[in-house]
Amino acid sequence: MRRPLGVLAVVASLASCTPSTGGAAGAAPEVTASAEGAAPASTPTQTEEAAPEPASESDECRVSVARPGTSTLRIQTSAVRRGCVRPALLRIQVKRAIPGDDPVVKSGATRKGRITLTMPCKPGTYYAVATDYRGGTAKSKAVQLTCVTPTPTPTTRETGAPPVSEQKEAISSVGTALENEVVRLTNAERVKGGCHPLKHDARLRRAAFGHSADMAKNDYFDHDSQDGRDMADRIRATGFTGSALGENIAMGQRSAVEVVKGWMNSDGHRKNIMNCSYTLIGVGAAKDAKGQIYWTQDFAAR
After folding, report:
1. How many other CB atoms are there within 10 angstroms of residue 188's CB atom?
2. Which Pfam family, an example, fits this chain (predicted)?
3. What residues contact residue 157 under an 8 Å CB cut-off, 6+ apart?
4. Is the pTM of this model over 0.90?
5. CA 110 to CA 289: how far, in whole Å?
6. Per-residue model confidence (pLDDT) at position 146
């Protein structure tokens, strides 16, 4: 089963973005995040239409919907009801923006308060609409998505391994053992491609972990935080002053090996990992209430 991944670099804003020294932008796989990666698909529960009930809902009841994002060969979005007292049917539709009436390309419904849709990736502009049958509605922003075919073996060139002392310096005591394993595996890929290993930076790690923890707590998957901050905002908030920022995200991978492999099998995420201009990295891994791991890599140069 493929897991979702997201990729972001400061200058471009497609489903798969390339790094730059400009302002941050991106979408998940945007992706976003995986990740690039792959997406755990859940089949929407098909259910009958429910008639609206006369009782009014609490003012705290809200419906939210995530903008569609890409993982490897998949498009994914989700919707959720929050702060609601009474149950209601929640329906989500993915629409493709084209001249004329926008067709519904995927739909589903649930009474459980949260639903995720996945479908095969086809390039185009998509948005999602969520409705609960007590009257709440939400519509995501439209996003242009591209579909990346996975590359089983990244193109590399043979190069000598750096001295042991340099490798040890690249992976410091910053972060957890799991996060440092992601750094180690990332640096192993960089070395094979001729790039120097990255140093695990405490401030970048703080930004990465904060984003992973926020996604896990609030049940979303995107490069943009729900409070409106983007990757650059989160990194600058830690006091970091480097440049050439980039970000990879992923969700659901069960190990460091699995998430790095997923990123390396996606063109956009691999470009961030193999960008030799980066010198620093921050990795954050956080679990949600169900034990699912959200992963973030933040890259920078100094």
Report:
1. 14
2. CAP
3. 193, 194
4. no
5. 20
6. 72
Contact 212, 284 (CB under 8 A): yes
Question: ∠ CA(268), CA(269), CA(273), 5° rounding?
Answer: 120
Of 4, 33, 47, give the one whose Cα is nearest residue 272.
Answer: 33
Tell me the per-residue pLDDT of 248-277, one tens digit each, with 9 for 90 and over: 999 999 999 999 999 999 888 999 999 999
Find residue 91's DSSP bridge partners: 109, 131
Summarised one tens digit per residue, pLDDT across range 61-100 is 888 899 888 765 678 888 888 888 888 888 899 998 988 8
The helix or strand, by DSSP H or E, that contains position 271, with its residue range, turns out to be helix 267-273
Helices 177-192 and 256-264: crossing angle, nearest 10°? 30
User: Bridge partners of 114?
Assistant: 80
Identity at 75, one-letter amino acid code: I
- Exposure string over 256-274, b if 16+ CB within 10 A, otherwise e: bebbbebbbbbbbbbbbbb
Q: Token pair of 124, please?
A: 């185009």
H helices of 67-223, in order, are 164-170, 177-192, 202-218
Q: What is the dihedral of CA 154, 156, 162, 166, to 10 degrees?
A: -40
Q: In the numeric block, which tokens belong to residue 258?
A: 């699995």
